[in-house]
Amino acid sequence: xxxxxxVTSQQNQTKMNRIFHARxxxxxxxxxxxxxxxxxxALWDKHILLALIMAAIxxxxxxxxxxxxxxxxxxxxxxxxxxxxxxGKTIPLQEVTKVEQVYGIRLFGVGLMRCVLVHHGNxxxxxxxxxxxxxxxxxxxxxxx
Length: 145
Prior knowledge:
The protein is an alpha+beta fold. It has helices at residues 2-14, 26-44, 48-67, 132-144; strands spanning 18-21, 69-72, 77-81, 89-92, 96-107, 110-120, 123-127.
């Protein structure tokens, strides 16, 4: 009976989606701080229209940062979800030609910002998953199937 449950559990794992959350970079925190400061200043100085625009930008940015996920589905698709306000993308893994980890910004030979480039067709997506190596491994394993 235990062995039967174990086999069923392993079969379910092959049908499950793998979700990776996005890492938040220092520049994104600075952007949020700047927009929040501008919103407070606009409210303080009674620029209501500017305050509403800045508050809307702040809400959309926070929504995107919190809810960005990269899902590798069981039917071999990479689903990029950027929150409720921004349209996501679905990339079939058969179209992915190359996946590589790169350092976007280097200072004194030290990489400050890491991202994963996913090349598909003639397009490239720059992603920032929390666990880059595991993300690349899962994509490569799914592509080989």
